[in-house]
Amino acid sequence: MTTRRHFLAGSAAFLAAGAALAGRSAGADVARPAPGYTFEPGSLPANPEAERYRPPYRLGMGGAPMAHAGPGRPYRPVLEAVEAAWESGVRYFDTSPWYNLGLGERRFGVALHGFPRDEFVISTKVGRILHPDASVQDVASWENPPPFRHEYDYSASGTRRSIEESLQRLGTSHIDIVFIHDLSPDNSDLGDDWERYFEQAVKGAMPELTRMRDEGIIKAWGMGVNRLEPSTRAFEVADPDIILQACKYSLIDHQDTVEQLFPLCEKRGASVVVGSPLNNGFLAGRNRYNYSGKIPDGALQKRARLSRLAFEHGTDLRTAALHFCNAPEVVSAVIPGSRNLSQSVENAASMREKVPAEFWRAAVKQGLIAESAPLPV
User: Fold this and answer.
1) All domains of the chain, ordered by start, with CATH?
2) Mean pLDDT within 174-182
């Protein structure tokens, strides 16, 4: 019988192969971390005086990419990606019931089974309840989805039910952080109804999550969205601990977040988890942007200038992008997605590198980074 110990022993070869694949354009190999290396607050900037819960590991793994289940996403590479992330020092994993209708949570549950539960952080989301439905054949955004249909529910009872079902899929006794998911005007499913659902969350999900936090069932809660408006509004009506802000804090797009969200979080003692720090792969070279094929005007030109500047200073754009997102003290974690072993190794390797200070000064001088944005030291 194959045990996790046997698999981990075998995964060394996979990790070595991933390291070879993850070589920089300059030709350098990716070094594996020393045994026991993790991205803890002591190894990266953190705020040790924060009273609210913050994930104790600065680098996480975004779980959306590993939820796909088409021919190009067989299960074994998913397991290898999680194993490689773990061996590379990653101890924070983020997922959602929405990620391929429960499959993302189930995959994390299997991949993390056997690891000591007190050695990693897991966050998931609420807002959609899944119902078995054999008539479901296809769901936009997901490859080969399981036979479930989703129903939006931001009520108190729906929130508690969602968390209970996530515990089952994840195979764990507790969840560290819960985010209210996709309650935002850019969610085309909700359309103009997003305001009505937001009011449902104000009366239901938000006070229920606060109660669950006070009961010790979860450690923290907040919004998990791609726009700033729901995040800033949540502070007006409730007491969130942590905001998963995706797509709005990156080298390409960051000034609004610096000016609108960061001050609110700092005032309330809350923190930010940066989701999609590479703009859904755009800053890693893919011609897609924030889960869409539509690339904003000027983004390609800005990427080209940043990439050239990074090369001139002996680094690469992905590394610079991840360090930029990690720099603010109000940021408690950065969670780039990984869909395979190579990407897991690459992300961790980038966070162990140092970007020359001259790169940051040049980027600000050229207008590529806002003067108000915090920079790595």
Assistant:
1) 4-365 (3.20.20.100)
2) 98
